[in-house]
Amino acid sequence: MNNKSFVEETNCFSKKLTNSFFKKIFVFDEIDSTNNKAKELALKNEPEGTLVLSKIQKKGRGRFDHIWRSPEGGLYLSIILRPTCKPEKTTLLTFLASLAVSETIKEYGLLPYIKWPNDVIIKNKKVSGILIELEAKNKKVDFVIIGIGINLNTDVSVFSKNFISTSISAELGHDVDFYSFLQFLLKNFEKYYLLFFKERYNEIINFWKEKSDTIGKEVKIINFNSEITGRVVDVDESGFLIIKTSSGQIKKITSGDCVYLR
Ligand code: BTN
């Protein structure tokens, strides 16, 4: 019988990562938010590839100040990156993170799609979200935190009924091994980050387009106080959404909550 705690078991697992991009790993049984911790560590000069993982989060955060419910069973991690690119290119990092997540989920025989900009969905239900946080000075990136939350072996019945979500275990009908999944995910992340490092940005966007179901959809984009509706005609090289409104205007959307209308 395995009596190891999450921290002990994850620290054992981390020995497998010594030859990978992820050289340093900080593990917690419980934390407010892995993104908060990763930011604290980045400010103390922890290097690129540092990973923060927690079994649960007490104050998991999503985009637009949403709460990211983080009970036991989910996968919550944040990665410190220090890319040498222009700050505006860092949006693509969320695209590559959602690609890595969707590719990992596919290895389990499921059919995930990506909803712009980076929600991973299965049968129209959200299974994973990405939160990027950028620290830049004088138009130079200091660091980027990529937070990834995945409903892995999560009992989604604990979530509110208005929140349309699913988990990998709910879709498969059984739990999956946490560490095998994590290993696939990190391998896939590293693969796509290499493309980013080599500035092969178009390839990232093209892979993303293949996995996204947003192009062609009628959508409403909600951005703080404004809303815009229209049909998605494309996603440009920076990851911005190109929308044609009912009056025929072409609009470029840089951020917002995307709701499918039909
Ligand atoms: C979203 O879909 O709105 C983004 C959700 C991001 C959640 C992850 S879980 C790990 C990391 N820590 C956080 O507090 N948030 C991200």
Describe the structure.
The chain is of the alpha+beta class and 262 residues long. The protein is built from 6 helices and 12 strands. It binds biotin. Biotin binds at residues 33-35, 57, 60-63, 66, 68, 76-78, 119, 129-131, 147-149.
Order of helices and strands: HEHEEHEEEEHHHEEEEE
- How many β-strands, per DSSP? 12
Helix content: 25-40%
Strand numbers in spatial order across the main sheet:
1-2-3-7-6-5-4
Beta fraction of the residues?
25-35%
Provide a compact summary of the structure.
The chain contains six helices and twelve strands. By secondary structure, it is an alpha+beta fold.
Quick tags:
alpha+beta; seven-stranded mixed β-sheet; binds biotin; 262 residues
Helix/strand layout:
Elements: H1 6-14, E1 25-31, H2 34-43, E2 51-57, E3 75-81, H3 91-106, E4 113-115, E5 119-122, E6 125-137, E7 140-150, H4 168-172, H5 178-197, H6 201-211, E8 218-223, E9 226-235, E10 241-244, E11 250-253, E12 257-260
Parallel strand pairs: 1-2
Antiparallel strand pairs: 2-3, 3-7, 4-5, 5-6, 6-7, 8-9, 8-12, 9-10, 10-11
Helix pairs in contact: 3-5, 3-6
Bound molecules: biotin.
